[in-house]
Design goal:
This protein has 294 residues and is α/β, with parallel strands linked by helices. 39% of the residues lie in helices and 20% in strands. It has eleven helices and 14 strands.
């Protein structure tokens, strides 16, 4: 894969000429200096990325709150988010590819679009500042990279060479509704992987990276930079940053109540329906009998 990537890179570089003196990015082989409009577009993208890096709510969810989520399961977190009215929040068709891995972290995002020649030309010209590298480079230790591939579970969002960047930044995981190329090699990087599928093909003609750290969708759920991503073998749920603490309070109480109810059912050898109902949950929430029994 590394040899193939080196050949592909060398081939691609043959199509570039020296840097444009105005915007300082490479020119294609059929270009002289970039047009003023293209230079202006490149500069505006740089400014937008700078603004986003200052305004993304990456620290709105405290480390203490994140640590609490590491002790609970996705199914209950989904219930807590749904209880707050933030539905849909569960990613459809996004499957775990690192079984047994519990993923919790703040989201950084990348939006893909269908390929188009002008978009490809403009973003390729950015080189190391192209959208996918900006998005992955914005990840800090423990963050989760979420990529919106428009629900195209067959479309590659990257392979072992590109996705090495997430290992270098210390990201906790990658979540996408697209496909991961060179999956077995990427697994060796040590972070959690959740995806719509796996593939040996490249993204074209299905998907092209366009916009880093904007509001996206993934698996039918909206994701904003700074939201909390929680994944396990049951799938992935998105917790909006503004309700993260409220949800974990509910989740912890609900799991205590469920453990108490299961103990009663086993002790009395009765149908779960005797205790596992909304009325009983409401009663338990008020009396909190597990506190006195512990």
């Amino acid at each position: 894969n590394l040899v193939a990537a080196s050949v592909a890179t060398a081939t691609a570089l043959r199509h570039f000429r020296p840097l444009c003196p105005s915007c300082q990015v490479y020119r294609m082989d059929n270009e002289d200096d970039h047009s003023p409009s293209l230079c202006a577009m490149i500069e505006s993208r740089r400014e937008l990325r700078s603004i986003r890096s200052l305004t993304m709510p990456a620290d709105r969810i405290s480390d203490e709150t994140i640590a609490r989520y590491r002790n609970v399961v996705v199914a209950t977190v989904y219930g807590g988010v749904m209880y707050q009215g933030y539905e849909p929040c569960f990613m459809r068709g996004v499957k775990p590819y690192t079984p047994g891995r519990h993923l919790v972290g703040r989201a950084k995002t990348l939006r893909f679009v269908p390929p188009r020649r002008d978009i490809q030309r403009e973003t390729q010209a950015l080189g190391a500042d192209s959208p996918e590298y900006v998005a992955m480079g914005s990840c800090g230790p423990g963050d989760v990279m979420v990529m919106d591939a428009m629900g195209k579970s067959w479309a590659s969002i990257g392979g072992d060479v590109k996705l090495l960047q997430l290992k270098l930044t210390g990201a906790a995981g990658l979540v996408t509704d697209g496909a991961i190329r060179d999956l077995d090699a990427v697994k060796e990087y040590g972070y959690g992987l959740f995806a719509g599928g796996r593939t040996g093909a490249v993204g074209i003609p299905d998907a092209w990276p366009l916009e880093p750290n904007a509001t996206i969708q993934c698996g039918g759920a909206a994701v904003r930079p700074g939201d909390l991503i929680v994944g396990d073998d049951d799938g992935v749920v998105v917790v909006a940053a503004e309700i993260a603490e409220t949800v974990i309070d509910w989740v912890e109480e609900h799991e205590r109540a469920e453990e108490y109810i299961k103990a009663l059912i086993e002790k009395e050898n009765v149908s779960p329906g005797k205790y596992y109902n909304a009325e009983n949950f409401e009663r338990l929430a008020k009396k909190r009998p597990w506190e006195s029994s512990s």
